[in-house]
Amino acid sequence: MPCAATVSTRPESECDDGNASNTDACVEGCLAATCGDGFVHANVEGCDDGNDVDDDGCTNACQLPGCGNGVVEGVEECDDANADDTDDCLSTCFLAHCGDGFVHAGVEQCDDGDQDDTDDCTTLCEPASCGDGFVQDGVEECDDGDDENDDACVEGCVDASCGDGFVQAGVEQCDDGNDIDDDDCPNSCMLTTCGDGVKQWDEACDDGNSSNTDDCLVGCLLASCGDGYVHAGVEDCDDGNGLAGDGCSPTCESEGAGGAGGGAGAGGEGGVGGVAGAGGQPGTGGTGDLPDTEETGGCGCRTSTSGLSLGSCGLLLLGLLVAGGRRRTRIARTRPR
Length: 337
What we know:
Order of helices and strands: HEEEEEEHH
Structural class: little secondary structure
Distance between the termini: 228 Å
Largest sheet: 2 strands, antiparallel
Strand content: under 5%
Number of strands: 6
Strand order of the largest sheet: 1-2
Helix content: under 10%
């Protein structure tokens, strides 16, 4: 029986639509339809199980279970019943997190939803920057995530190199950041030493070799006469003492050897005896032109550089005496008797 036919005038009636349908706004008992009355209000409620259990098949909001109904159900992590993806709960009913592709307001600075750390947004949902430990493709040469400048990656996220102004440990000895090759730190970033081939302010020369016969000596000094080294093509000799008469002159020219001493002069021949006059005394034998005794050491013979012994002088004098005696004998034989 329709509610209107029996109780329309009763004060407890909320409605009376004159029909027996419980899916419209007025349900059995002439009551206004409400969530929880056990009747599904068409186009208004998704369900109505008439209880206050919120996690069964029909929520207390008379909605079927599902994301966006405001009730956390099943596999849902959250359900805030809105479509905002920048808050704590996504429209997918999962909690916001880095990598979900949505920038969580007040929490993340970026979120590109991928696992690539070489692009503009890292997997930490922070904009890529030098020092974050990730090498940004096309922007950085390196990124070791520290602020040390003595390793392989230096300030500015560039590879360490000679001339960058930072001394790379175990690789460089110095790095002054300039391209001046003759200061305390040359362009090789190795400390200057004599023999490195680079002339420094305190070196006269540096040809980088160990030869002492060219223009630059070991020790980075210019070759000069008297240094004790023969300068090839320039000096004949160099004995380093600056003395003359020792075979090498003070101007580093070879000195000639002394000439040999002169040979001994030959003794003069004996003179021919004069012819005896009548009754006269026989002439004396001529005196040979013998060398001065001062030159012969008093022996009447000339000495040479080879030196004659006293025995040789004696034999020479004996020979002269014998020759003189023979002349006298011949003269005596020719005298008239």
